[in-house]
Amino acid sequence: MQKNLIIITILFLFSSCANFLEVEPELAVSDEQSITNGKGAAAALNGVYNKLASDSYHGVSFRFITNLSGDNLRWVGNSPSNREFDVFEVFTSNSRVESLWNAIYSTINGANHIISKVPDIQDQAFTDAERARILGEAYFIRALNYFDLVRLWGGVPIVVKPTGSIEDGLGIARSDKAAVYEQILSDLEKAEQYLELTTVKSRASKGAVWAFRSTLYLYLERWQEAVNNANKVIEETTIYQLNKSYSDFYLSKNTAESIFEIDYTINNRNNYAINWLPGSLGGRREFLPTDDLISLLNNPLVGGDRRNLLLLDQDIYYGNMDFKPATGIDQVYVFRLAEIFLNRAEANVKLKKLADANNDLKKVRARANVSEVSDYANEEELERQIQLERRLEFAFEGKRWFDLIRTNKAKATLGITKDYKLLLPIPQQLIFVDKEIEQNEGYK
C-alpha cells in the first residue's frame, strides 16, 4: 500500500515535468515525438514559450507570488493559500508553490531537449541562421528559468540534460546559489553568441540578453558590468526607445520600449486580469493596491502619469494593469527599457558616478510626467530615489519583492522577522519522494 502511494505521489508531482511525453508539438517536447527536422525544432521552441506563458508560470503563479510578497499589493480574496504570500506564512504544502516549481522545471526540460537535439539535426531546409536562433532562444529561456528559481528558492538542482522519464528527474541534489548564477551566465553567453538583434520583442534576442545581464549583475554586485550591458541596450536607439506615454506599453504590443515580453493571443489567453478587476468589469477583486502605494501614485510629485495604474470604482482603488480583460491578450513584460535606465542609474551610484545616475533617473521620471527636481548629491538619498522610482514604475510587474531582497530592505520594509521567510519552501511532495533534496531552513 505504501509503495503504491509513493508511486501515485511521484506521478502527481512530476505530471507537469512529464508533459514533454505528450504528443502535441505546440504544447510540449517529447522523446516519442523527436526533434528531427527544422519544423520539429520550431514547434518544440513554441512549446517552450507556451510553458513559460502558462498559468502555472508567468501567466499567473509567478506574478501572484512576487506581487503579493512585496508592499504594493494586498490580498482580499478568499483563498487561504494565496493569502500565505501576503502575510509571509507560506506552508510547504502550498499548491501554487508546487505548481510554479513544476512548471519552471518543465520549461527547463523543454529547453534541454532543444539544446541537446537541434545541433545534430540533418535537414537541408533547416538553415544555419534558423538553427542558431532556436538554440539561442532556448539558452535564453533556460537562463530565465534558473534566474526565477534562484531568486525564489535559493540554491536549486541544476538540470541541463533532457529527461525522458519520471525517474530521470530524481536524485539531483541542490546546487548553491553561486553555481546557479554561473549556470545562468553560461547560458546567457551562449545565447548571445547565437542570437541577433530584432524588433520582434516576444522572442529572445541579443538585446534581451544584454538587458538580462544588466539586471543579473545588480544581484551579483558587479556594477561596471551592469553599466556596460545597459549601455549596449540603450545605444540601440533604432530598436529600443522609451515610449512617449507611460501607458503606451500596456495599450500596445511590441512597442519600442519593450525588450522581452511574453505574448498572449485569443488562442493562448492571459487569465490574470480577472484577479485585479472589480465585479463591475467582470473581475473577482482579489488584489488591491496598498494604501501606501495609492498615496504615492496619486502624488503628482512622484507618481505623475502613473496614477493611471489605479482604477477607482465605488470608492475603492484597483490595480489597472490589464487593459484588455475581455480578450485576455495582455502581454507580460520581462524586460523593458525603463528598467535598463534604472539599472544603469543604480550601478552608477555604486560607482560614484552620481551625475550619470541622476540623468538616467530624470529620463524615467520625465516620461512619467514627474516634475524635474535638482540633482541628488547624496549617494544614499539618490539610491533611495532610484528604488522609489523602481517601485512606482514597475508597481504591478512583480519586481518590488526582488528589489527589496536584493537591497537588503525586505525585512525592515515588510516587517519580516526571520530570514528564512525571504525564500519559498521547496514543495513538500518533492521532499517526500526525493531524498537528495533538502528543505530550506525554517521550513523543516
Average pLDDT: 89
CATH class designation of one domain: Mainly Alpha
What integer value in Å does the Rg equal? 22 Å
How many β-strands, per DSSP?
Answer: 6
Textual characterization of the structure:
By secondary structure, the chain is mainly α. Among the domains are: 216 residues, Serine Threonine Protein Phosphatase 5, Tetratricopeptide repeat (Alpha Horseshoe), CATH 1.25.40.390; 47 residues, no CATH class. The protein is built from 17 helices and 6 strands. The strands form 3 sheets. It has a two-stranded antiparallel sheet with strand order 1-3. Strands 2-6 form a two-stranded antiparallel sheet. A two-stranded antiparallel sheet has the order 4-5. A hairpin with a 2-residue loop joins strand 4 and strand 5. Helix 5 runs antiparallel to helix 6 and helix 12 runs antiparallel to helix 14. The longest helix has 26 residues.
Supply the key terms.
single chain; 444 residues; mainly alpha; Serine Threonine Protein Phosphatase 5, Tetratricopeptide repeat; two-stranded antiparallel sheet; two-stranded antiparallel ribbon; 17 helices; 6 strands; 5% strand
State the gist of this model:
With 444 residues, the protein is mainly alpha-helical. It is built from 17 helices and 6 strands.
Topology:
Layout: H1 2-13, H2 38-53, H3 61-69, E1 73-75, H4 80-87, H5 95-117, H6 128-153, H7 177-194, H8 206-219, H9 223-234, H10 248-251, E2 258-262, E3 287-289, H11 291-297, E4 310-313, E5 316-319, E6 332-336, H12 337-350, H13 354-367, H14 379-393, H15 400-406, H16 410-414, H17 428-433
Antiparallel strand pairs: 1-3, 2-6, 4-5
Helix pairs in contact: 2-5, 2-6, 3-4, 5-6, 6-7, 7-8, 8-9, 8-12, 9-12, 12-13, 12-14, 13-14
